[in-house]
């Protein structure tokens, strides 16, 4: 077979050298042959989580290049598995087991491990591209049929991908070698006292190794070898168009009948493959929660996962920067189309109300202070006057007085300086918001707390109307309506997330349009941006400055509350409040609002 004829060449070759030499993870150039050496031990021994994240981000870049080349427009996000990240074909997300990194086989170099991870990612993406939807929705309950179905489908998608992209067949071979051959005991048959169960497990295990092992495995059971040869003849053909028409479910049934045809069928439903349970869940890379040692090998901690995702996102931004610059400099280069903008209301999950309540409790001591800073607003004060000769009858005075003509009272409503105001809070929800913001919380948590502070302080003020939007870019510019005068469920503020990139210019533009359309006529408007990092390079950065100028011309004030390291003035915001503490934000915000009122009076 074509794939197996190259086995000897692949045994001694690292396919990822192309991506890793020159600018590998290890800057040591002293070795002429393998300048990256055994990097896994360095990765594990490094105490600096940033160093670990940088190394793993570089690996993801190498893996993602191959996946993008093979699957073209069918883009997948490639991440390492954590408790929050797993393979999700609907979301086009591939989760890689961290086991090759955390527990590398003896003698494996960096390129060998990247080969394995690339084969793992290609395998998952091949399923997404070539497996029919029924493969995911109709997996048989019979455990032995499920294993056979997996083996048939895995063999099918890998060979079909290898036909279209012959140069990448070696990645599948490396992945299979790591998975099935480096630990012989991992898939070895475990004898059982039950003769039927023992025979069922034996045949299933032998068939698995006959099809997936890279060592030209031959079973001692003639029936298994016959079935394996039959499947190879069906699948290992050289016509990809013809192979794509193959019905793998029908093939699975045929293989199953041949493999277990002389056994009592109803007994199969009551036995479990003792050594193949893990194989049924391949691709998810989620270890048994009770098995701590296994979980540490296959999954990485969530904080490391968040850091890797953020670094990877920044890496992609830098990679796209040259295209954006080229689009602006080369008249023959068509500019990229503007991203689609989507307003949506996030669907509440079970923890949203709890997260908002936590944010509300964190800012509770500061709510009244901020509200007092808004004393110029339309807040009501009721003053009651008693012992009057006319007015409303004071029943208490009537009952208590022996004789008096002062039995009346009058209530007077005094409104302080009447000023209406429409305010929009625009919260950065990009991936960089996972970074720490001080005080033991992340930036996204701090932004959530500030949103709770403004909403709780402004909600009782009759003359002020408030909107809260989160924004990020994931395929489209997402403007998430977290709170508005028409959407009074404050728990949605607990749905603020940290993912994607920072389309700050587009968010400003469309939030301002929403404010102008839904806000009240002739009412002063303030747009507050709570963000941490830089907007996406190119058009987005220019759009921030352009929109701030337009809003200033319309009389709308723009305030940037920076929860990161960036200076807000750099992007043209009229006012900037760097985050230090809640009191500082309250004092500065009150000062700016007072200035706004004085300007309106003049």
UniProtKB/TrEMBL annotation:
Residues 422-565 form the VWFA domain. PROSITE patterns: VWFA (PS50234). Pfam families: VWA (PF00092). InterPro entries: VWF_A, vWFA_dom_sf. This is von Willebrand factor type A. It comes from Desulfotomaculum nigrificans (strain DSM 14880 / VKM B-2319 / CO-1-SRB) (Desulfotomaculum carboxydivorans). The lineage of its organism: Bacteria, Bacillati, Bacillota, Clostridia, Eubacteriales.
């Amino acid at each position: 077979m074509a794939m197996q004829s190259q086995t000897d060449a692949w045994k001694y070759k690292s396919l990822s050298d192309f991506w890793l030499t020159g600018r590998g993870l290890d800057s040591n150039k002293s070795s002429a042959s393998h300048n990256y050496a055994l990097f896994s031990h360095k990765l594990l021994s490094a105490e600096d989580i940033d160093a670990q994240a940088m190394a793993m981000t570089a690996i993801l870049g190498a893996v993602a290049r191959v996946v993008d080349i093979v699957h073209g427009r069918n883009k997948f996000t490639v991440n390492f598995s954590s408790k929050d990240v797993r393979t999700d074909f609907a979301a086009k997300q591939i989760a890689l087991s961290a086991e090759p990194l955390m527990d590398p086989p003896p003698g494996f170099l960096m390129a060998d491990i990247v080969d394995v991870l690339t084969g793992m990612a290609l395998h998952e993406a091949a399923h997404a591209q070539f497996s029919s939807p029924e493969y995911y929705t109709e997996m048989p309950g019979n455990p032995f049929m499920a294993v056979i179905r997996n083996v048939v489908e895995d063999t099918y998608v890998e060979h079909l991908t290898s036909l279209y992209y012959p140069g990448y067949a070696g990645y599948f071979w490396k992945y299979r070698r790591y998975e099935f051959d480096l630990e012989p005991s991992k898939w070895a048959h475990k004898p059982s006292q039950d003769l039927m169960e023992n025979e069922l497990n034996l045949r299933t295990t032998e068939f698995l190794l006959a099809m997936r092992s890279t060592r030209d495995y031959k079973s001692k059971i003639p029936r298994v070898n016959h079935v394996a040869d039959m499947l190879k003849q069906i699948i290992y053909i050289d016509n990809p168009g013809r192979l794509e028409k193959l019905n793998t479910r029908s093939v699975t049934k045929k293989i199953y009948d041949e493999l277990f045809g002389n056994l009592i069928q109803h007994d199969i439903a009551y036995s479990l493959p003792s050594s193949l349970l893990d194989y049924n869940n391949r691709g998810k890379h989620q270890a048994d929660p009770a098995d701590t040692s296994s979980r540490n090998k296959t999954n990485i901690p969530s904080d490391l996962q968040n850091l890797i995702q953020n670094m990877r996102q920044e890496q992609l931004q830098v990679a796209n920067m040259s295209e954006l610059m080229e689009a602006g400099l080369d008249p023959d280069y068509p500019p990229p189309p503007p991203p689609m903008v989507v307003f949506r209301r996030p669907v509440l999950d079970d923890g949203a109300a709890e997260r908002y309540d936590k944010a509300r409790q964190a800012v509770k001591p500061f709510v009244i202070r901020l509200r007092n800073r808004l004393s110029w607003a339309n807040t009501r004060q009721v003053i009651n006057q008693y012992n009057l000769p006319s007015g409303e009858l004071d029943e208490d005075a009537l009952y208590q007085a022996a004789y008096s003509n002062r039995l009346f009272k009058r209530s007077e409503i005094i409104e302080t300086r009447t000023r209406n105001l429409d305010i929009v809070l625009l919260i950065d929800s990009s991936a960089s918001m996972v970074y720490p913001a001080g005080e033991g919380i992340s930036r996204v948590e701090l932004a959530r707390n500030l949103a709770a502070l403004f909403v709780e302080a402004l909600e009782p003020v009759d003359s002020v109307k408030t909107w809260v939007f989160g924004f990020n870019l994931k395929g489209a510019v997402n403007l998430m309506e977290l709170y508005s005068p028409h959407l009074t469920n404050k728990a949605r503020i607990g749905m603020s997330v940290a993912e994607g990139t920072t389309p700050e210019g587009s968010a400003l533009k469309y939030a301002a349009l929403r404010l102008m359309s839904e806000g009240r006529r002739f009412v002063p408007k303030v747009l507050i941006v709570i963000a941490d990092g830089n907007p996406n390079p190119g058009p987005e950065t220019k759009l921030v400055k352009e929109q701030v100028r337009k809003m200033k011309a319309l009389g709308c004030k723009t305030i940037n509350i920076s929860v990161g390291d960036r200076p807000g003035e750099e992007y043209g915001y009229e006012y900037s409040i760097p985050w230090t503490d809640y009191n500082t934000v309250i004092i500065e915000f009150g000062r700016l609002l007072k200035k706004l009122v004085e300007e309106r009076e003049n």
